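Recall that a protein's primary structure is simply its ordered list of amino acids. Everything else, from secondary elements to tertiary packing, is in principle encoded there. The following example makes that idea concrete.
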Amino acid sequence: MLTFITTGYCTKSFAQEEILLYPGGAAESNGLTERIERAGEWKADVNVARLFAYPAPKEKATGAAVVICPGGGYAGIAFVKEGDEFARWLNERGISAFVLHYRMPATNYEIPLKDAQTALAFVRHNAKKWHLKRNKIGIAGFSAGGHLAATAGTQFSSADNRPAFMILVYPVITMDAAVTHGGSRNNLIGKNPSEELVRRFSAEQNVNKKTPPAFLTAAEDDRAVPVQNSRSFCEALQANKVPATLKVYQKGGHGFGLRPQGTDSDKWTEALDKWLRENSLAYDDSQLRFGLIADIQYADCDPSGSRFYRNSLAKLDAAISALNRQNVQFTINLGDVTDREFERNIDSVLVRLKQLNHKLINLSGNHDYNGVGNERILYKKLDIKADYYSFKKKDWVFIFLNTNEISDYANPSDTEKAQELSAMLQQIELSGGRQGASYNGGIGKKQLQWLNSQLQKAEKAHHKVLIFAHHPLFPESVYTALNNTAILNVIENYSCVKAIFAGHRHTGSFAYYKDIPVITAEGMIETENDNAFGVVKLYKDKIVVEGQGRMSSHELKISKF
């Protein structure tokens, strides 16, 4: 059992709450006698594992926390320069910090990792005490402490001791004698370790898809720990589709910490702050976040007007790379994956979409039906499980309409649907509507009834709803779904609907339909070089669309039930 001990222990800052990880004594001893040296900034031969708690100020607290592992070559720890000072920096940004005085390995290489795992589990188990979010507890490490943090991030044994993210500053990563820091290697695993031991404590060899995201930074002129340590770990993370960012500076050497050096490495904290914000790892309190893509429309053919079909592949590669760094739960593609000859062109797109490190949800678009004799072939390729469907994440319901259902390109031989199409076109003509074009479609009576029942259930359960379709529902234009009015007449009855998303109209649009925001996403295909994709963040009281390239950004307040 872990307990608290209030202490007068001081660094160059203020006394902190001290926590003994093993108040009754650890099961194993390293046989060392610890001491404070170097003007009170260095603790050598640490033999008692402690945490020093730095709770974030209440008025700034984000609910995130970081367990900090100072460096010291596994001989001691620079607990002020790489502990206290970084904790204060985190506190200024509303992030709680816990500086870990981990025990030195001496003759037992298991000891530091055990301390790091125990510390992570302890902070997570006591999240309520410090008002923390259990899914936003990360780990940071400097130099050999970076090795310990990376080991904790690749060798966690449970959800309790898995860090949510890693911050690795000029870290030792590998135990490969040609690249590692010799002192750290010798102190941890000895001068003549087995190959198995070298592999086990080489973090780059233990990365998998469950490894948490990482921010790494180092200087090119680091003569103590070669920058290749950071590069090899970043490459291993990216190969496993784990979000990873590496910032390498030309000057800074080793051990720069947060103290100004007058070199470009002084900028690393700015880069870290940006990374934490962009990936919502410490600052963002969104409930969900997902990627958004519309109208890739790749085809192996020459440009036509503003559509540069072949260029879509390079744009898609860039979008996927960016979305993989955004820590999104899934990405929604709003349709028109190809422009023509679906079966000939689709594999060029799918091989890229498979590089996403999260789930992809595809809608079909009108262009996708080109050259497809059987709709089921299209669905199988795009992994679409049903004509229309919904799913729930937290208290959000995602409804996916099939606005291709009633159209002359998707169901030419279906008599019942052909009759519905004829009726829709006749109604458009009578009302003077503009959307009766052959590239538009609508939804049938059964789907309309299904939509109504889905919204009834969501309203009763007080769930919030987002609706997705390929064809826009509003405002009415030459691109609108054929029976958009009938669909909107159902939707307007339910306050649970918080937004409607669509594609198809490449220029994009934004409007409100009776207080419901309707976002038509800009198409990736449009223009020669400008990309278009985004990230949607869902909060309790708002929806934020962060557009990239041509895709527009929006911050939308959510109306109450």
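Residues 415-431 form the longest helix (17 residues). The chain has a mean pLDDT of 94.
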